[in-house]
Design a protein that fits this description.
There is one protein chain. This protein is of the alpha+beta class and about 150 residues long. The chain has six helices and five strands; from the N terminus they run ααααββββαβα. A three-stranded mixed beta sheet has the order 4-3-5, with no helix packed on it. The protein has a two-stranded antiparallel sheet with strand order 1-2. About 10% of the residues are buried.
Length: about 150
Amino acid sequence: MADTDRMKEWVQIMSDRGWRVTSQRKSLLELFLASERYWSPLDVYEEMKRDYPGVSYDTVYRNLRLLSEPDMGMLEQFHFQDGMKFRARCETHHHHHMICMQCEKTIPFEFCPLPFVGQQPDFEAVTHRFEIYGYCGNCQEAVPEK
């Protein structure tokens, strides 16, 4: 899906949920659509205050959390050693990730643990996440002994 189509879809989702569709929120979404990198809340705040000097860190953080809620589905949250980071949700199909803790290279993989969870009595899975954190081949040599 093209970025313009994704932006239209995301704006529609916000509108359908009663959110005000402001230029700040559109800029925030454009930031994620333009990049596949992981963004810390501080990185997003620093980027946003260039165009919106009056924006607060709390506002940026609150919007990141809301946009990553399962019913919004625009951003994904990832937990790194240096804190939480966000990036645009993958759109192509259901998959999971192996993520390098050094360079943040992300390798998608198709295995899904949900069938195992589905076998558990008295539990209905609604949503799930599964990431494996480690070091890619390029970063393994640079990592100090564990």
